[in-house]
Every structure is written in structure tokens, then in C-alpha cells.
Amino acid sequence: MALEERNIPNQNNEKNPSGQDQENKPNKKHALNTEDWWAVWLGFGLISLIIVAAFPGATLPSRWGTEGNESIFHSLPLDKVPAILLTGLIALAVFWISTRFLTKNEHKKFLVAFPALFILTIGAYVIGQYGPLRHYGFNDVIWALVIGLVISNVFKTPEFLKSALKTELYIKTGLVLLGASILFDRMLALGMLGVGVAWIVTPIVIIVMYLFSQRVLKMNDQRELAVTISSATAVCGVSAAIASGTAAKAKKEEITLAISITLIFTILMMLGMPALVSLLGMDPIVGGAWLGGTIDATGAVVAAGSMLGESAMEVASVIKMVQNILIGFVAVAIALFFVSRSQGQDQAVGQGKKNVSAKEIWVRMPKFIIGFIGASLVFSFLLPEQTVEAALPAVDSYRNLFFTLAFVSIGLESNFKVLAKGVRGGKPIILYIVGQLLNIILTLLAAWIFFSGTFFTLPF
Q1: Compositional bias of type Polar residues: which residue ranges (predicted)?
Q2: What residues contact residue 311 under an 8 Å CB cut-off, 6+ apart?
Q3: Residue 441 lies in a domain
Q4: Predicted local confidence at residue 164, as pLDDT
Q5: DSSP 3-state helix, strand, coil percentages of the chain (rounded to 5)?
Q6: What is the pLDDT of residues 72-121, one digit of tens each?
Q7: Does the residue 458 lie in any domain?
Q8: Which of 127, 134, 137, 294 is deepest in the core (most CB within 10 A)?
Q9: In the chain, how many domains are there?
Q10: Does residue 15 sit within a domain?
């Protein structure tokens, strides 16, 4: 990712200090012409097309390496290539529109660079659809990051390709689409039991981790990084890192560092925790609740839960989805905290903290969260169930595509030497490990209280 910036690009239409040439500077036409707002426009525009015009979902490589589909050619058959190319054209058109308004003349370079990025993304999908490895969490997102990192660190990211690396735009638009999948009625499926695991532990872990980072690790000059790691650990990894990092105005490389740490430990936890549940002879339902509240990525939660059985997988996935609802609220809370406390302390000169205006809080709050919450409300309460069931597969297909585009971009923009500087003696790693251990212990306790059947009657 770009390195010298403190703010996510275009968040407030600020000038990019990272060395962009003049023609690529943000186009300051209107307060709504920002990257965050364009994520909302694009997300809801795509959702509207899918619902109203029965717009087709994204066509992507299929699973291979399984019985009857051993060949890699099953992932990308010739009859599927035209539909995949159409998917690429749709994605190109979607993001070209925003690029046309956000930057000066860069949209021309984007037209040339995006097809190359899309090809790399399809390559990540093909590798990530290999069944035996995918079962253990090595999916397209992981391989997208690996491909990008190899090109960036072993070779060098081609200059022409940089015009297509709209990492935050891809992932923020994907997060708006993710809101459609976060249905509030799923929370009701397990009643207050799921809420007890997903909502009680999460804020405790975030607060304790942040206090630990400031008072014990003395990360006083890395407050934004600390809160980003804390949120990623307690809520849901990558999505929470982007949302909370944006709200705190973390540096782009700080968000990248938090994501990288999260991904590495997610794989380890996904493989190790189901084995630990079996080794300890734990009730699979309690184990599923434990996995759902601690493992960061939804896909990894489902994979890990499946190792414990169908019921455990259902409990784990529902708890993770309930936990994901907190993304928007956590981001807003972080924005309020950093404006009213952190920024207020920086501004105070020999006197008490200055009052912070509502306008300043609004400016800091990530606007794409509005789209995330809005999509969740629309799909939870306004649309008929049949419409939701018909539209969600197409919405989810584009969300997965946009996330994979983002992770290829993250890899292409990341440099290990720069990331290593952010570790500073291992403090971010220590923060994550200590916080995740606390998360594991508290979530295990909550899972036993709410899902062991000792205190509450289970709904199945």
C-alpha cells in the first residue's frame, strides 16, 4: 500500500502526499465525491440492478481437485470463459465510473491496468478453488495476497498496473455488499444465546487490548494501529481492520500490517482450535460457539466448524454473522473516541480539552459504514424473503470478487521491508497474541455459559 499517508485516500478529499503526479490527484468537485461515498453508490447501484433487473451474478472459476473433478481444467472450462470475461467487463465498468469522477485523467490508465489485475485475480481463484487446500482455509483471498506479495517483493509491481490498485475502493464496496448478508433475523435464530457470545466479549476485548497497548506496551505513537489490531482481533479480522482503521485514520501500511497479522493467525487458529476441541473432549456445540466467536474470518469459521459436525458449523457461522453486525457500530464508536478524546488531547494547549463539533465527528466517520448498515437493514426488514434468497447469491458473488481484487492489490502495494518497520520490536505481534488469548479465554467461558445447556435451554 502507499506509505506516507495518514488517511485513507479520498476519505475527506485530501491531497495525496505519497508522490502521485498531478493528473492522479483527487478531483475535488463535491463533498459527496469521495471514495467512501462512491463505495456506497456502487454497492447500492449493483444491489439495485440485481434486485430490479435480475442482473447476473459474477461467474468465477469452479472447485477442482475433488472426486470426479480432479483436473485444473474443470475450474476454468472453455464454455465458462465468455461469462468470466463478462464478469471482468462488469467489474471494470463499475469501478471505472468512480475513477472517472475521483481522479483527473487516471481513468484512461485504469482501463488498461484493470484487465491485468483481473487476470491475476482469476489466477488466485483457480489456485484457491483447489479442494484439498481450500478445506484448510487456503482460499482465493489467501492466494490473492500471496500472488501480489510475490510480484511486489520478488520482482517489482509494474508501473502501469498501479493505476488499477484501488484497494480501499474495492474492499469498501465489498463491505457495503457484505451488509446485505448480515441479516438481523439470523441473530434471532439463536436468540440471546448468540448475542451473549458475540456481543458481550467483543467490546471487552477491544477496550482491554487498547488499554494494554497504551499503558503496558507504550504504543502511544501508534494509537491508530493499536485500535485497528484490537478491532480486527475482537470482531472479524480484515473487514473490521478496514472499517476501524479508516475510522481512526490509521496509515495505510498500519492497516496492511493489521490485516497481515490477522490472516496468519487465522490460518493457525482454524487448523488448531478444532483439533483442541476434539482433544479436550469438548461438546461440539460449545466448541462451535467458541470457534465462531474467536476465529476472525467467516469462511475460516465455517471451515473450522465443519470439522466438528453440522450443528457445530451452524452455531459457529451464525455467531460469526451476529458478531459481524458490530462492524459498523465499532467503527462509529472508534470515530467518536478518536475525535473526542485523542484528537481533543492533541489540540489542547495548556487548558482543558476543546469541544469537538458534530461536523468533525461526521467528517471522521467512514461513510461506507452507512452503506453497510443500510444494506443490512434493507435485506433484513424491507425486502420479501423470496427476493432476499434470490438476490443474495449474486450479491455475495460480487462481494467475493471485490475482496479478492482488493487482496491482490494489497499484495502488489506491500513491501516486507516497510511492513517490518511497523512491527517495532514486536509490539503489534505481542498486542495481537495477548488480545487473542484474552478473546479465546473469555469466549470459551461465554460459549460454555450460553451453549452448554447448563444455564439456558438450547433451541435445538
Answers
A1: 8-21
A2: 284, 285, 288, 460
A3: yes
A4: 92
A5: 75, 0, 25
A6: 888 888 888 999 999 999 999 999 999 888 877 787 889 999 999 999 99
A7: no
A8: 294
A9: 1
A10: no
